[in-house]
């Protein structure tokens, strides 16, 4: 069966897709930056890297515990920039030694799972004292009104939190990296057909999967779903530039941002249900006053793959974020975390019955 990500993300229905064409433009959040809506968070990473390299930055320090898409994006620039990886602590914050290696030609890539405002301030001060810039990847925590941000570039993912086809946010907070009107005009045309095709494939995969995931018809529709999934992955490899959102996806994002408060509130309620259910077990604690987390990160005793497999058989696909390449085995904490954790979904479309099933299955394992 194809590994289609049904339950980790909210699913877009045809009715909402059609309604979205009447949506009005929405503010993403109130911080005063140059705000760009990109085709995805990965397209935002591209723009941040391109602008950094243009301005003379020659090396990047990125966490070894990271998404395969980030590794792909970084490798695209390996001839232009020196890529170095650092280990993380048990709470997924950066190891201390990495800050001694920074200098005025360095980019510090930070993945923010749940870093407190005080710790973020310390990271910012360490980087700035070395003259380094920061790419702050907040794809796993949607912004709150007064969320602490420290990056010269700040990245968010709309796709991870709302039922859209795709969508990312890039906030440029350092004036020297701001895109000119000419550059914006050029990027709006960049790979527009390829981006639209990529998103249509995702839409097709999503609609078919959500319609038949718990039905005997899913086996019949296996081939077209798998084909759409593979075609989308193929297109992503070629569409690796920093492109903006296509018009229909922009409408969808606006449609859901209108409802963001009630959606985010429901997500927090679901997160708290897991907290109660798994009291006494190890999990990544989020400060819900400062962040809207992507999911509930539960630590297991090397059973994360077994749990994911069991949930998948029942139609619930929890995430392992992330399975790392073998070369990262030398990074003690990053490798251990990749073997021992699972991300349980908290999105607003989960019913009480679905959550109870997920909790019951997970409780079978340590």
Notes on the protein architecture:
- This protein folds into three domains: 19-188, 3-Layer(aba) Sandwich (Aspartate Aminotransferase, domain 2); 192-242; 258-362, Aspartate Aminotransferase, domain 1.
- α2 (41-54) runs parallel beside α3.
- The longest helix has 21 residues, at 192-212.
- β2, α3 (68-76) and β3 (82-86) form a beta-alpha-beta unit.
- The chain starts with 13 loop residues before the first helix and ends with a helix.
- The chain has helices spanning 14-19, 41-54, 68-76, 117-129, 181-189, 192-212, 217-220, 222-238, 247-257, 260-277, 304-313, 332-340, 352-362; strands spanning 34-38, 59-63, 82-86, 106-111, 133-137, 141-142, 153-157, 168-172, 292-293, 295-299, 341-345.
- 42% of the residues lie in helices and 14% in strands.
- The relative contact order is 0.17.
User: What general form does the structure show?
Assistant: globular
Low-pLDDT ranges? 1-7
Number of strands: 11
Please give the count of helices. 13
* CATH 2nd-level architecture of the largest domain: 3-Layer(aba) Sandwich
What name does the CATH topology of the largest domain carry?
Answer: Aspartate Aminotransferase, domain 2
Described by strand count, sense and barrel closure, the largest sheet is: 7 strands, mixed
Rg is 20 Å
User: Strand percentage, roughly?
Assistant: 5-15%
User: What is the H/E string?
Assistant: HEHEHEEHEEEEHHHHHHEEHHEH
Distance between the termini: 27 Å
């Amino acid at each position: 069966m194809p590994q289609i990500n049904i339950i980790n993300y909210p699913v877009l229905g045809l009715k909402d897709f059609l309604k979205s064409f009447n949506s009005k433009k929405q503010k993403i959040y109130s911080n005063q930056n140059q705000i760009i809506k990109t085709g995805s968070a990965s397209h935002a990473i591209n723009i941040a890297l391109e602008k950094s390299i243009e301005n003379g930055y020659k090396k990047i320090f990125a966490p070894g515990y990271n998404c395969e898409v980030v590794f792909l994006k970084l490798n695209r620039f390996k001839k232009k920039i020196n890529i170095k990886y650092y280990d993380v602590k048990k709470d997924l914050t950066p190891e201390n030694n990495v800050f001694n290696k920074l200098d005025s030609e360095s980019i510090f890539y930070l993945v923010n799972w749940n870093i407190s405002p005080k710790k973020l301030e310390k990271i910012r001060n360490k980087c700035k004292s070395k003259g380094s810039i920061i790419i702050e990847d907040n794809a796993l925590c949607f912004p709150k009104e007064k969320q602490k941000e420290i990056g010269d570039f700040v990245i968010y993912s709309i796709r991870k939190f709302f039922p859209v086809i795709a969508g990312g946010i890039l906030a440029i907070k350092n004036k020297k990296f701001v895109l000119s009107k000419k550059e914006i005009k050029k990027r709006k045309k960049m790979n527009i057909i390829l981006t639209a095709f990529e998103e249509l494939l995702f839409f097709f995969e999503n609609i078919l999967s959500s319609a038949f995931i718990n039905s005997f018809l899913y086996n019949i529709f296996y081939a077209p779903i798998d084909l759409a999934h593979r075609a989308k992955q193929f297109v992503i490899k070629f569409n690796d530039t920093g492109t903006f959102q296509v018009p229909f996806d922009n409408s969808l994002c606006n449609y859901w941002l209108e409802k963001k408060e009630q959606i985010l509130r429901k997500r927090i309620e679901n997160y708290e249900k897991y907290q109660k259910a798994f009291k006494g077990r190890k999990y990544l604690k989020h400060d819900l006053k400062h962040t809207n987390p992507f999911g509930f990160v539960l630590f297991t005793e090397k059973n994360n793959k077994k749990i994911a497999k069991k949930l998948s058989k029942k139609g619930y696909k929890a995430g392992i974020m992330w399975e790392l390449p073998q070369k990262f085995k030398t990074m003690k904490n990053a490798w251990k975390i990749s073997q021992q954790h699972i991300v349980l979904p908290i999105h607003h479309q989960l019913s009480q019955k679905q959550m109870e099933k997920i909790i019951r299955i997970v409780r079978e394992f340590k």
